[in-house]
Write a structure and sequence with these properties.
single chain, about 100 residues, 1 helix, about 5% helix
Length: about 100
């Protein structure tokens, strides 16, 4: 799963029947350290995320399989809204003993 932030919406009056009733959002991908990680993209919203919310998404076949009909053209799908991110600093923790 990947981390991103919703930065906009897409309105499409005509789309493939497999996407009928599905919302499309523009997502800016980020690393887990909250650094931008590439160009924004459009993703199908399966959790009713809103602008400015942090989300996690899947890509490729995992995104298509998340849809009710897995035979669709979806490349990215939002699967959850992030409540909190906590990172442990690896350089401050001693390495595990062998």
């Amino acid at each position: 799963m990947q981390l991103g932030q919703v930065i906009g919406t897409v309105v499409a009056s005509v789309k493939t029947p497999n996407l009928s009733g599905q919302r499309m959002l523009i997502v800016q991908p980020y690393t887990y350290a909250r650094q931008p990680d590439g160009a924004p993209f459009v993703a199908i919203d399966l959790v009713s995320a809103g602008r400015g919310e942090w989300v996690f998404y899947v890509r490729a076949r995992e995104a298509a399989n998340a849809m009710p009909n897995p035979f669709n053209p979806v490349d990215r799908a939002i699967l959850g809204i992030v409540d909190e991110i906590t990172l442990a600093r690896l350089e401050t923790e001693p390495p595990p003993e062998a």
